[in-house]
Amino acid sequence: MSRDQDDIRTLDACFEAARAAPLEPSPELLARVLADADAEYARTAMPPARVQPLPRAGRLGQAIRTLGGWPAMGGLAAATVAGIWIGLSPPEGVQAYLSQPDAAYIVDLPPGVGFDLTEGTL
Amino acid sequence: MPLDAMSDISDDALLVLFANGDRLAARALTLRLTPRVLNHAYRMLGNAAEAEDVAQEAMLRLWKIAPDWRQGEALVTTWLYRVVANLCTDRLRQARPVTLEATAEPVDPAQGPVARLQGADREKALQQALARLPDRQRQAIVLRHMDDLGNPQIAEIMGISVEAVESLLARGKRALSADLIDRREELGFADE
After folding, report:
1. For B181-190, what is each residue's pLDDT tens digit?
2. Which among B48, B63, B125 is the nearest to A23, CB-wise?
3. What is the pLDDT of residue B102?
4. Is B106 on the interface with A (CB under 8 A)?
5. CATH number, domain with residue B155
């Protein structure tokens, strides 16, 4: 038998011996690998955050929502209170304006002067 | 689905099943792939405890990639061997020369005592000779002759051409033969 054939035979027998006696994974290693799998799955498969459904609103609630919600209602309430207050107890400037309503409408026109309007000028 | 029924399912299909929450798929992959990565790491490192660490880390990386795995693009084993190779390279760079540890010698219980001793001697001699090879030659030899992979897949794992794999294998086998030839009698080849 040639030297090359001896080499091949020796090497093949050693490979065969190594393949015939593989290192078996210990139960502890397999358990650790599976535990890693469980942990990794739990980490990546977190359930998505649940969207809370809006509570059903009554008629008043629906009206408020239609008007733009509580912020819009706040503005509306402030405007209403201001209007009532001005109506019941008008400030001085407003009182003076309201007490001479006619003066604003007296116009003394000389003869020959009119309010001719040309289309497109206003 | 029972575990036995999963033996016909491909690695990448099992990986997708795992990503979808199938725990049995994880178990099937663990039982199928852990021995392969463990033995590959053991042949590369020559140390069972370190090989266990590498195997666990490689499998953990597999679980992490599962949700993004694209079926049909690459073999799971190719990806996994590449990960193991990188982990082994990191460990080999960190410290010591590769040596065969004194404990945890694998044995084949089916053999008789004499054959078992002889087999153990040959396995040990091979591991010692492997440890003296350059890393890339050792990786190619282990992938080809221990993990029984074809040259194209080895080329893909190592990121080189098939011709380069053939060259590594030829040089590696020459070096192993030169290492083992003086021990032929001791390993029981003289009287065969």
Report:
1. 878 777 777 6
2. B48
3. 45
4. yes
5. 1.10.10.10
**Which of B27, B64, B125 faces A40 most closely, judged by CB atoms?**
B64
A9 vs B contacts (CB less than 8 Å): 189, 192
Confidence of residue B104 (pLDDT cuts 50, 70, 90): very low
More confident residue, A35 or B97: A35
Domain finish residue from B47, B68, B97: B97
The answer to whether residue B115 is domain-embedded is yes
Q: Please tell me which residue of chain B has the smallest CA distance to A42.
A: B21
For chain A, domain boundaries: 59-95
Structural domains counted in chain B: 2
CA neighbours within 13 Å on the CB side: how many for B102? 0
pLDDT in tens, A18-67: 999 899 999 999 999 999 999 998 888 765 555 555 566 677 877 877 87
Could you tell me if B103 lies within 8 Å of chain A, comparing CB atoms?
Answer: no
Q: Which of B59, B138, B58 is nearest to B98 (CA)?
A: B138
Residues 6+ apart with CB under 8 A from B21: A41, A45
- What pLDDT does A10 receive? 86
Residue to test with chain A: of B17, B62, B177, most A Cβ within 10 A: B177
CA distance B10 to B75: 9
Q: Which amino acid is at B120?
A: A
Residue B102 placed within a domain: no
**Interchain proximity A25–B35, CB inside 8 Å:** yes
Average pLDDT score over residue span A72-100: 78
B103 is a domain residue = no
Give the pair of three-digit tokens for residue B113: 């005592």
Q: Which residue has the tokens 């040259």?
A: B151
Judging contacts by C-beta atoms under 8 Å, the chain B residues touching residue A26 are 52
Query: What is the C-alpha separation between B142 and B127, in angstroms, rounded?
Result: 10
Q: What's the maximum distance between 2 C-alpha atoms anywhere in chain B? A: 57
